[in-house]
UniProtKB/TrEMBL annotation:
InterPro entries: aa-tRNA-synth_II (IPR006195), aa-tRNA-synth_II/BPL/LPL (IPR045864), Anticodon-bd (IPR004154), Anticodon-bd_dom_sf (IPR036621), His-tRNA-ligase (IPR015807), HisRS-like_core (IPR041715), HisRS/HisZ (IPR004516), HisRS_anticodon (IPR033656)
Known partners and oligomeric status: Homodimer.
NCBIfam families: hisS
Chief localization: cytoplasm
PANTHER family documented for this protein: HISTIDINE--TRNA LIGASE (PTHR11476:SF7), HISTIDYL-TRNA SYNTHETASE (PTHR11476)
Taxonomic path: Bacteria, Pseudomonadati, Bacteroidota, Flavobacteriia, Flavobacteriales
Enzyme Commission number(s) from the entry: 6.1.1.21
Signal peptide (UniProt feature, chain positions): none
Compartment annotation: Cytoplasm
Protein name as annotated: Histidine--tRNA ligase
Length: 450
């Protein structure tokens, strides 16, 4: 049988790896320009670290790792016969692949908070795994590129992260829109509609608006036990104007006496106003009152970034999570973070044809192999090129020159070098520019200086 890939995973060719590095290098440079320091955490965590942090739907997508050895030996026989997967899971698995980078980061902060200097700013670029249904732009193994700040309640952190988003995407050549909301506004809306006890059901359904539309959201709200009367009070959510500040003003009127909702409006108004004062185009920062983001740990601002020219879903997202370390026994460490979706960003840049020529990994020179003494002289020259930081290789066998040409063309090598007996005697080098089709013979010194 031919081997195959696990569903939702991919191999990456040399070209794809080079292009991914191009994106990562731009993000990493900007993370460090904004004062973030690198951190890496293990690919798997204790299952108890991850569960209960992402909501019911998120927990279902965590990849569990079977305990090593005879993992069935300690299973309760009755649970096995009843096929009670919830009870069985904890008996056969105590570890899992990380679902995101935020919860492992919160675990790290909780474990090391006495040694950290706050506010603590870190960035992390590593793969995560989710047992999701694969589709365009959605994979089971993918990279996240996160930047988080913990230990500060200042809303200037939100303003700074908006700048980080826009600067990074501008350097990648992408026009984007940052959708922004606040979980306190969502809590205020639930209170306004008389469904404060159904906040999670409300936000989970609302978060699917882009995928299932207004009718689908209304249907799910009803299925989750939310009365039609409450849904009718929230109908204005689906008919917002393009003016963010005007929409916030409308909310202030509806939130009269609603302390949580008004606090959310006040926070969001500050972030938007300060961003505009720093030159952000109002077209690039949109107050999206229906933006919910399904993760339970968000407590304040929430972000989602979408490419303007390609239909791809979000290519970035994040928000404030003031209570996340509390589940690990450490209180009063507020945090906020954003993530860049490397894989989706790649697909958007590829679809728009925006990868630059330098975002490739190509060999500069291939030396033709003539055998004998010529091979040794070629290797000496290749060594000198590599010491100058120029990529070069020797064709491994003394084969027909046509075969060596074909190899160079298929690999996209720029130049084919001929260092034969005559060139060695005269102290010259002959090379052919395979893209331009031009062949030159120059002195060895001139060649090394070119």
């Amino acid at each position: 049988m031919k081997p195959g890939l696990a569903k939702g995973t991919r191999d990456f060719t040399a070209l794809e790896v080079a292009r991914r590095r191009y994106i990562i290098n731009i993000l990493q440079k900007n993370f460090e320009l904004f004062g973030f320091q690198p951190l890496e955490t293990p690919s798997f965590e204790n299952l108890s670290t991850l569960t209960g942090k992402y909501g019911e739907e998120g927990d279902r997508l965590i990849f569990k790792i079977l305990n090593s050895g005879d993992y069935t030996s300690k299973v309760n026989q009755q649970d096995w016969e009843d096929k009670n997967h919830q009870k069985l899971t904890s008996q056969i698995s105590d570890k899992a692949l990380r679902y995101d980078l935020t919860v492992p980061f919160a675990r790290f902060v909780a474990m090391n908070h006495n040694q950290l200097t706050f506010p603590f700013k870190r960035y992390q670029i590593q793969p995560v795994w989710r047992a999701d249904r694969p589709q365009k732009g959605r994979f089971r193994e993918f990279y996240q590129c996160d930047a988080d700040v913990v230990g500060s309640e200042s809303l200037l952190q939100e303003v700074d992260l908006v700048q980080l988003y826009l600067k990074s995407f501008a350097e990648l050549g992408l026009s984007v829109t940052i959708h922004i909301n606040n979980r306190k506004i969502l809590s205020g809306l639930a209170e306004f509609a008389g469904i404060a006890d159904k906040l999670i059901d409300f936000t989970v359904a609302l978060d699917k608006l882009d995928k299932i539309g207004k009718e689908g959201v209304v249907k799910e709200l009803l299925e989750r036990g939310i009365a039609q009367e409450s849904i009718d009070k929230l109908d204005f959510l689906f008919e917002q104007s393009d003016d963010a500040l005007e929409n916030l003003l409308q909310l202030k009127e509806k939130f009269a006496g609603n302390e949580t909702g008004l606090k959310g409006v006040e926070e969001l108004e500050f972030v938007i106003t300060q961003s505009l004062n720093l030159g952000v185009d109002i077209q690039n920062l949109v107050f999206d009152i229906t933006l919910a983001r399904g993760l339970d740990y968000y407590t304040g601002a929430i972000f989602e970034v979408k490419a303007d020219e390609v239909q791809m879903g979000s290519i970035g997202g994040g928000g404030r999570y003031d209570n996340l370390t509390e589940v690990f026994g450490v209180k009063n460490i507020p945090g906020i973070g954003i993530s860049f979706g490397l894989d989706r960003i790649y697909l958007v840049i590829e679809e728009l044809g925006l990868f630059p020529e330098e975002a490739t990994s190509k060999v500069e020179y291939l030396f033709a192999n003539f055998g004998g003494n010529e091979t040794l002289e070629a290797l000496k020259l290749i060594k000198q090129l590599r010491e100058k930081g120029i990529s070069a290789e020797l064709y491994p066998e003394s084969a027909k020159i046509g075969k060596q040409f074909t190899y160079a063309e298929k690999k996209g090598i720029k130049n084919l070098v001929f260092l034969g007996e005559e060139e060695i005697k005269d102290g010259n080098v002959t090379y052919k520019d395979l893209e331009a089709g031009e062949q030159k013979t120059v002195s060895l010194e001139e060649f090394l200086q070119s």
